[in-house]
């Protein structure tokens, strides 16, 4: 067997073996309300003296198995208050994790539109178990205006 065909065979096997790892979540209606107390952000640029602790108050209303609306206020990485409003869309499942993104808007970052509102699309991973959960966001850097981070948001289900 030639090297390239052996490599192609290995690649095809690896892809087939991984096919069961990712699943598309069936879209069904839900009604769950979650509350959170802000974020913890681990910034990629550790030398910028950014605020990693981002306390606040937020809510997430999961209206389907793949989507939820979110809103809140927190003390951001630039040490100013921010508001956010968005929709999570997470149609992929990997084991107990939901994968997707949140699309929405933020304000309060002094170097971004003078603290005004701006749109954002942020990849997210969520894990929920009974009444507790966590959202993990992979926040990209944007020039010298926004600093990238892994952001962790613990949440508690309060209504079902």
* Total beta-strand segments: 9
Strand neighbour order, sheet with most strands: 2-3-4-5-6-7-8-9
User: Total helix count?
Assistant: 1
* Main pleated-sheet profile: 8 strands, antiparallel, barrel
Please provide the ordered H/E string of secondary-structure elements.
HEEEEEEEEE
Query: Which residue ranges are poorly predicted, with pLDDT under 50 across at least 5 consecutive positions?
Result: 1-5
Word description of this protein:
This protein is mainly β. 10% of the residues lie in helices and 59% in strands. The chain has an 8-stranded antiparallel β-barrel with strand order 2-3-4-5-6-7-8-9. A hairpin with a 2-residue loop joins β7 and β8. Residues 1-5 have low confidence and may be disordered.
Concise synopsis of the structure shown:
With 160 residues, the protein is mostly beta strands. Helix content is 10%, strand content 59%.
Core attributes:
160 residues; mainly beta; eight-stranded antiparallel barrel; 9 strands; 10% helix; 59% strand; globular
């Amino acid at each position: 067997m030639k090297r390239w065909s052996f490599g192609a065979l290995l690649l095809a096997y690896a892809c087939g073996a991984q096919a069961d790892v990712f699943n598309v979540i069936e879209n069904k209606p839900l009604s769950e309300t979650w509350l959170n107390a802000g974020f913890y952000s681990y910034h990629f640029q550790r030398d910028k003296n950014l605020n990693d602790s981002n306390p606040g108050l937020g809510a997430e209303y999961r209206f389907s198995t793949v989507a939820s609306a979110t809103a809140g206020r927190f003390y951001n990485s630039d040490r100013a208050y921010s508001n956010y409003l968005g929709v999570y869309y997470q149609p992929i499942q990997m084991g107990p994790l939901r994968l997707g993104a949140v699309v929405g808007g933020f304000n309060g970052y002094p170097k971004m539109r003078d603290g005004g509102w701006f749109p954002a699309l942020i990849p997210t991973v969520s894990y929920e178990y009974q009444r507790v959960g966590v959202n993990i966001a992979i926040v990209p850097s944007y020039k010298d205006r926004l600093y990238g981070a892994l952001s962790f948001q613990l949440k508690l289900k309060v209504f079902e």
